[in-house]
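Sequence in, structure out.
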Amino acid sequence: MNDTNPIRGKVVYLSGPMSGIEDLNRPAFAKAESRAYELGARFVFNPCEHWVHSDRPSEWYMRHDLHMLTCSECGDGDGIAFDVLLALPGYMMSRGARCEAFVAMMSGIEVVRYSDLLGVRA
């Protein structure tokens, strides 16, 4: 069992496939959010909870999500930017999630795959 925990005490941004998936993949995002909090994340941003419009093009969401990810005043609501992007299963098949992971890496935000947390102890 791996006892390193890359999200304990961190401000976490969830990223994963949504477009073309039933209910925008909300169950997977909710599960990842719960797991992140179980592992001691200080705050988790779940885009499924924040972007509820269904009449806007995916590019609109992408622009807003990238702003949220990189905004130094965004994150936990207290001015703490994101420390970690938690990439959900299938993120490499999603144009938007791949973009978010790339921008995170280029911005100095650690990218952690959700599958890497499965063996982590709280």
